Structures are given as C-alpha cells and as structure tokens.
Amino acid sequence: MSKTQSIVQYIILRNDLPWGLGALAAQAAHASVAAIHTFREHQDVIAYLSDMPNMHKVVLGANEQELIQLRNRLCSANIDHFAWIEQPEDLLSAIGLRPYPKELVRPYVKHLPLLKDLQSK
Questions:
Q1: Strand, helix or coil at 12?
Q2: Cα(85)–Cα(33) distance, rounded to whole angstroms?
Q3: Per residue of the chain (121 residues), what is the pLDDT tens digit?
Q4: pTM for the full model?
Q5: Could you tell me the residue ranges of all domains in the chain?
Q6: 7-109 homologous superfamily
Q7: How many angstroms separate the CA atoms of 116 and 112, rounded?
Q8: How far apart are CA 111 and CA 37, in angstroms?
C-alpha cells in the first residue's frame, strides 16, 4: 500500500466553456500546478510528490455558477486551493485543491460529477 494512497488532488474544470479540448486541458493543468506550487511546503504536498508513480487526481466538472459557489465554500472552510483565472479573458476556468487526504475534502466536492463530456457550444 502506498503512503500517499489516500491523498488526492481534486481539480474542478469548467464544463460550460466553448473551448477546444487542448485549451481546457491546459486550464486543468494550470490549476493543478498552481495549487501544488503554492502549497509546496505543506506536508501533504510533500508526501504526494514523494510518490509520483502513485499520484491520484480526480477531475470534476462544474458550470460557472457551481465553480463560483465552490470557491466561496472552500474559502469559508479554509480549504487550500488555487482558483485559476484565465487571462486576458479574466474568467474563472478551474480550481485546483492542494493534495489532501481524500476524506477531508470529499464532502466539498462529492456533489460534482466526474468530468466525462464537455458541452458543445
């Protein structure tokens, strides 16, 4: 059993943007890297990065309003995250939580679906 098995990074990506798959993948990557870098000295992040072959990420989908509500809820609960604001559009496109023990943050995101399909515009 891996020591980081229960540590997971949740990434929540806007699923209502009319962007191509590559642009959306970049948004998720930006949010993930920004969260890991911002909180790089946290013990959970250090543990997560020390076992790279067993990193676990979960990518969820949310529309703009859901993402804004989630950001507000995470801020209120002092859950470490990075809200990626794409420039020059100045729009919230993704949120990356720092790696956390799954049971601590799942209650905040369990209502969101796994990202499977993106809406066509």
A1: strand
A2: 13
A3: 345 459 999 999 999 999 999 999 999 999 999 999 999 999 999 999 999 999 999 999 999 999 999 999 999 999 999 999 999 999 999 999 999 999 999 999 999 999 987 654 4
A4: 0.91
A5: 7-109
A6: Bit1 (3.40.1490.10)
A7: 12
A8: 27
